[in-house]
Write a structure and sequence with these properties.
Elements: H1 2-16, H2 18-40, H3 48-73, H4 75-85, H5 95-109, H6 111-123
Helix pairs in contact: 2-6, 3-5, 3-6
């Protein structure tokens, strides 16, 4: 009986904090990827103009790729775009609701790139 109550409480906790858990897991995976990427790929040339360009590209190119992947992976993105093609009079919500969805998509997609850049600046080896 105690086990069922604990599972029920855990289930309600997970359902109530789904976005927080998702963002935490994305940040953890980004942190792990950044550490692996930095140990395997990043080799600073240690000359001023080259090191600045190399460090900036190490920070911002993967962040841009993570942002694009974050937008493409989001289910709401595809529902929003496919819904634009197959609208009827009853499903037309206007630009305001579409803009709200677009802002939500962008904010969710910015979690991984922000974590990547934040970790890169905190570490200090690539900047």
């Amino acid at each position: 009986m105690v086990g069922i109550t604990a599972v029920t409480k855990l289930d309600s906790l997970v359902k109530g904090n789904k976005s927080t858990l998702m963002n935490s897991s994305v940040i953890f995976l980004t942190f792990s990827s950044e550490e692996i990427f930095q140990k395997i790929v990043f080799q600073c040339p240690c000359q001023k103009p080259q090191s600045t360009l190399y460090g900036a590209s190490f920070l911002f190119v993967p962040a841009l790729a993570l942002f694009i992947v974050g937008i493409l992976v989001n289910n709401v993105t595809w529902r929003l775009f496919t819904g634009c093609c197959y609208r009827t009079r009853s499903t037309h919500h206007g630009c305001r609701k579409g803009s709200v969805y677009l802002v939500k998509i962008i904010m969710q997609a910015l979690v991984a790139p922000a974590a990547w850049i934040f970790i890169g600046f905190i570490d200090g080896r690539s900047a």
